[in-house]
Amino acid sequence: MASEQLEVSRLIKATQQRVYAAWIDPTQIVRWWGAGGVRCTAAEMDVIVDGSYRIANEAPDGMTMWITGTFSRVEPPARLSYTWAIEPITDESHHSLVDVTFAAAAEGTLVTVRQTKISSPSDREVNLHGWIGCLEGLDALLGELTGH
């Protein structure tokens, strides 16, 4: 049974509304998503409860992997919750859960990503590395856009 979990946070020097918007806008996602040579080549977002998303991750070797899921909580600009799986989905037990909070702070927005029901310790490490890289990319993009 999947029991691994992770949590990672980063202070982003932009408003809560701006950070939330960058998280849900496909044109912005392709600019900041990815870690360790992985880049986002496409994103589809239907950000409503029971709406779905798909994010294409292209590895350095050219292989593309799609991450997909369904939104269970949409509370702009403070919180998103959704399932997380890699296509093709063969079994719902391979879904993990992601909860992202966007908390206004004096210096910007504290983004916290919690992922639960991760299937293995190795998947946990891959996802942890990925989230750290994504938050770095988000910070870099929004810093570039705001001049920080």
Task: Tell me what you see in this structure.
By secondary structure, the protein is an alpha+beta fold. It has a single domain, classed as Alpha-D-Glucose-1,6-Bisphosphate, Chain A, domain 4 (2-Layer Sandwich). The chain contains 3 helices and 7 strands. A 7-stranded antiparallel beta sheet has the order 1-7-6-5-4-3-2. The longest helix has 26 residues. The chain is globular and about 45 Å long. 24% of the residues are buried.
Quickly give the structural class.
Answer: alpha+beta
The amount of helix comes to 25-40%
Range of strand content: 35-45%
Write the H/E string, N to C.
EHHEEEEEEH
Q: List unreliable stretches of 5+ residues.
A: none
The DSSP helix count reads 3
Top CATH class: Alpha Beta
- Sheet with the most strands: spatial strand order: 1-7-6-5-4-3-2
CATH topology: Alpha-D-Glucose-1,6-Bisphosphate, Chain A, domain 4
Q: Which whole number gives the mean pLDDT?
A: 93
Overall number of domains: 1
**Can you say what the CATH homologous superfamily is?**
START domain
Which features would summarize this protein structure in a list?
148 residues; single chain; Alpha-D-Glucose-1,6-Bisphosphate, Chain A, domain 4; globular; alpha+beta; 7-stranded antiparallel β-sheet
